[in-house]
């Protein structure tokens, strides 16, 4: 079939006015001016999207659909530690079926806002088989916490893989340095090397996390100490230093396949000058995920976008969960990012929800652009000719009008088509 639109934003060269994309099966086979593409594929069904702009489907590099039902339930708290207590209190009221409903509703919402690929952390990999039908491309990351049972790190990682391995795309997510032990991080790296899967974690998110690791003090330190965490790793290093150290001392890497490039690191708000020195020295860089609206909700320190970019880090955007955000719209994230960093070009911001997360998921050859051979994941939004195209895309506020995932047009409303 041929999909025509007023403009096609390919992220692979300049946008094509009066453009068309030819789709066969699950792939894009041609992109160009409508008259030329339609002449090449005469007789094919033509879907004319009129005055819309056709875009690559968006990629959410960090979210937790488990908590879709917590939207609006937790007001911003005095401290990050208070928020942890508040979400734990909310979670204690939920049953497994509530999480399943949350995940289903989260998928439907993400899709309505034009997300066609999602990196979703779940604390309940055992519930995935109960999810209705997964309507978009999903990387399932099992979120692992062993703060109360650090001797069970291997068992925890292995049983998560057992639950996930029938999924097409999956990975492991040791939650954060304050909740996941060194053993757990190291075991996850070993498993990732063996299975050739990705890893993600939360790092250097809050001032309190920095205080805990660097100074062995503060509300998070006290809270974690109270629940019985071994605090002997605190008071020596920043969170980033600790992360690099935990992984450096892991067992030799016999397969040599895993590198920092296989990590998606969420947050990185709290970095010292010495941390920047370490980041500069890294030969291969991990990928960084920033969640602008969740960041604002927590009032974290300013995200050092320009410094990370200058050091060669691939920065992506994510929504994080609805326990600290209002919706699963990546367009709302691009708007929030632009508000905080108006000097960054809209095209570069749009890369952070398309080509950059495609690279972070090691899918840069098939996702994030509209290009022959790439997966046919496409979305359309309304446009007016009077505005700069990328300016208009980044400022878009609403649900998409049309969506195709894997070469199949999908209804925006239904959760399971
Ligand atoms: Zn998160």
* Alpha carbon gyration radius: 21 Å
Low-confidence stretches: 253-258
Main beta sheet: strand number and arrangement?
A: 8 strands, mixed
Envelope shape: globular
Fraction of residues in helix? 25-40%
Instruction: Give the helix tally.
Output: 15
Explain the overall architecture.
The chain is of the alpha/beta class. Helices cover 34% and strands 21% of the residues. The chain has 15 helices and 16 strands. Strands 1, 2, 3, 4, 5, 14, 15 and 16 form an eight-stranded mixed sheet that branches. It has an eight-stranded parallel sheet with strand order 6-7-8-9-10-11-12-13. α6 packs across α7. The model is unreliable at 253-258 (pLDDT under 50). Zinc ion is lined by residues 62, 64, 202, 266, 320.
Topology:
Blueprint: E1 2-8, E2 16-24, E3 27-33, H1 34-40, E4 46-48, E5 52-56, E6 58-63, H2 80-91, H3 96-112, E7 115-122, E8 137-144, H4 153-164, E9 170-174, H5 182-195, E10 198-203, H6 207-215, H7 219-226, H8 239-248, E11 263-267, H9 273-281, E12 287-290, H10 292-298, H11 305-310, E13 314-317, H12 330-340, H13 346-351, H14 355-360, E14 378-382, H15 389-394, E15 402-405, E16 408-410
Parallel strand pairs: 1-4, 1-5, 6-7, 7-8, 8-9, 9-10, 10-11, 11-12, 12-13
Antiparallel strand pairs: 1-2, 2-3, 5-14, 14-15, 15-16
Helix pairs in contact: 4-5, 6-7
Zinc ion binds at residues 62, 64, 202, 266, 320.
